[in-house]
């Protein structure tokens, strides 16, 4: 994996070479049309950006020459210096020198810039006298220049999306060919299919790697944002960032940008108290906000933590009962994580006042829906008076997903691994009927368990999710899935393996069935339905609450 410094350097070089080419074009235009204010302004802008970028990354020679050229063009722009042939000659050579420096940023053998040329630039900049440009006339310039192209190119995201889709189709056909070669037992075909597997795997990771960007490209925007929101709220907030060099699919980063901004706003406006309130509680006047990223197997974890007032469970529970999200007698027995799940319900808010940044009816359901759309998950933990932590678990790629394959009633299904907490095998005696559901105790945690076949296929009138007699066999294979701070155990008939899959949308009218997130084709040629864990969880909860339609 590239270091953050290496990636920044490559981006700088690519942009600098674009600037170099553009400067050559614009100066040629200006030579023919010296009064062209628009071209002059564009040259000035390019040199200014190149000066700032090169100084920021530590290429001081490039920054110095860019500064001299920028100053010269500012003098031409202000009519203090005439754009004469001699001046043009020196400026072109200055641009050429920039090109050489950019091409040789990593070449220790590259000599220092030409001191005669540097003196000419200084004369133009410092003396403002056309007579002193006579030095340029006696300079023997090298007119035999070599052309070179950048080793870096910019690629539109939509082109990478198209390539990823083609790779996905190739992966499906690859698995089919491998399956057929095993069935036929042909050694030559096995050898070819094995080679095809390696090539497609390399191609898949190469395309995925091309789509990766450093998460710092988003994180580094937040210091200014936090400052502005805190100032508007009359609060003091210290922001700390970590994990900026963690890489993630650019499309995923784009989709979660607004969600992360929403969470940061909430943390400052609702979470962190005003300085005087914090001091009364024995806290430092300035609130602490931590934004971090880290890799977790095939996922990326983004954590946002504040040391503010925390979420008041009693207030959330009261609001949930008022909105009829849960019955009062049930609410009093809910665990904290179940109570916290209500804050993601549409329109749910406990804000008492409207500010510039919050309290306008836009709730955390928007954040949750955005995370759901990319196959991620969000969890929250909070302690009153201590603070709140949000964790976003995101896939590194949208197109290809790690999934767990299994079978229910002779139908193949897949569940994305990002929603899979664990897989357990329990004896029927370890499952208990409580009310209208079955529960299991796993490491001290009581988890509701449902037979997936019953949930998906049984007519609602005949459905009895709490009846153990409907289960087949003595040992039950259970997949524990997690969504919105809730866990649910899904009993399946057979477990198979983990596998990377390419999810394709269902065709009409099946795409209207919420519980299915798409379909994939297995190597055997069999169709495999991909379950949408958020939809499955909502469907089950709404059934228990009597809504029955699975809708929020």
From TrEMBL:
Pfam families: CheW, H-kinase_dim, HATPase_c, Hpt. The lineage of its organism: Bacteria, Pseudomonadati, Bacteroidota, Cytophagia, Cytophagales. Residues 195-398 form the Histidine kinase domain. Involved in the transmission of sensory signals from the chemoreceptors to the flagellar motors. CheA is autophosphorylated; it can transfer its phosphate group to either CheB or CheY. InterPro entries: Bact_Chemotaxis_CheA, CheA-like_dim, CheA-like_homodim_sf, CheW-like_dom_sf, CheW-lke_dom, HATPase_C_sf, HATPase_dom, His_kinase_dom. It comes from the Bacteria. SMART domains: CheW (SM00260), H-kinase_dim (SM01231), HATPase_c (SM00387), HPT (SM00073). The keyword Electron transport does not apply. Signal peptide: none annotated. Transmembrane segments: none annotated. It comes from Pontibacter oryzae. One of its GO terms (biological process) is chemotaxis. Keywords: ATP-binding, Chemotaxis, Kinase, Nucleotide-binding, Phosphoprotein, Transferase, Two-component regulatory system. GO terms for molecular function: ATP binding; phosphorelay sensor kinase activity. Its EC number is 2.7.13.3. This is Chemotaxis protein CheA. One of its GO terms (cellular component) is cytoplasm. Residues 400-542 form the CheW-like domain. It catalyses: ATP + protein L-histidine = ADP + protein N-phospho-L-histidine. Residues 1-105 form the HPt domain. The modification Phosphohistidine is found at residue 48.
């Amino acid at each position: 994996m590239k270091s953050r410094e290496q990636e920044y350097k490559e981006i700088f070089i690519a942009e600098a070479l674009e600037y170099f080419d553009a400067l050559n074009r614009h100066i040629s235009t200006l030579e023919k049309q010296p009064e062209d204010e628009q071209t002059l302004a564009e040259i000035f802008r390019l040199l200014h950006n190149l000066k700032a970028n090169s100084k920021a990354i530590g290429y001081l020679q490039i920054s110095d020459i860019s500064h001299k050229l920028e100053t010269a063009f500012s003098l031409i722009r202000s009519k203090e210096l005439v754009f004469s042939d001699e001046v043009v000659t020196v400026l072109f050579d200055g641009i050429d020198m920039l090109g050489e420096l950019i091409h040789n940023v990593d070449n220790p053998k590259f000599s220092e810039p030409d001191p005669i040329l540097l003196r000419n630039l200084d004369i133009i900049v410092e003396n403002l006298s056309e007579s002193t440009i006579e030095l340029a006339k006696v300079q023997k310039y090298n007119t035999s220049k070599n052309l070179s192209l950048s080793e870096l190119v910019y690629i539109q995201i939509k082109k990478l999306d198209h390539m990823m889709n083609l790779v996905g189709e190739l992966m499906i056909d690859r698995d089919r060919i491998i399956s057929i070669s095993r069935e036929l037992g042909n050694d030559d075909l096995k050898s070819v299919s094995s080679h095809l597997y390696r090539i497609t795997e390399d191609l898949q990771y190469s395309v995925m790697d091309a789509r990766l960007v450093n998460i710092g490209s988003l994180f580094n925007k937040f210091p200014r944002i936090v400052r502005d929101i805190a100032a508007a709220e009359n609060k003091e907030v210290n922001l700390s960032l970590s994990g900026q060099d963690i890489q993630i699919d650019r499309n995923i980063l784009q989709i979660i940008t607004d969600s992360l901004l929403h969470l940061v706003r909430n943390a400052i406006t609702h979470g962190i108290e005003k300085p005087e309130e914090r001091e009364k509680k024995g806290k430092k006047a300035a609130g602490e906000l931590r934004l971090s990223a880290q890799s977790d197997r095939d996922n990326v974890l983004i954590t946002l933590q504040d040391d503010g007032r925390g979420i008041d469970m009693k207030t959330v529970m009261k609001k949930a009962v008022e909105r009829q999200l849960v019955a009062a007698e049930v609410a009093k027995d809910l665990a904290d994580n179940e109570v916290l799940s209500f804050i993601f319900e549409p329109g749910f808010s406990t804000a008492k006042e409207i500010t510039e940044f919050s309290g306008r009816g836009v709730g955390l359901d928007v954040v949750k829906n955005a995370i759901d759309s990319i196959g991620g998950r969000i969890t929250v933990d909070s302690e009153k008076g201590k603070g709140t932590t949000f964790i976003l678990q995101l896939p590194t790629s949208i197109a290809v997903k790690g999934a767990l394959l299994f079978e229910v009633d002779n139908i193949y299904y897949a569940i994305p691994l990002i929603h899979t907490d664990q897989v357990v095998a329990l004896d029927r005696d370890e499952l208990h009927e409580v009310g209208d559901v079955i529960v299991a105790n796993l490491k001290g945690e009581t988890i509701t368990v449902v037979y997936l076949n019953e949930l998906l296929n049984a007519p609602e009138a005949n459905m009895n999710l709490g009846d153990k007699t409907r289960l087949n066999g003595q040992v039950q294979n259970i997949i524990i899935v997690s969504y919105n701070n809730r866990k649910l155990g899904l009993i399946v008939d057979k477990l198979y393996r983990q596998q990377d899959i390419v999810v394709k949308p269902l065709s009409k009218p099946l795409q209207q069935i919420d519980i299915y997130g798409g379909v994939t084709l297995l190597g055997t040629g069999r169709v495999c339905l991909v379950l949408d864990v958020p939809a499955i969880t909502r469907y089950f909860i709404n059934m228990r609450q009597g809504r029955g339609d699975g809708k929020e």
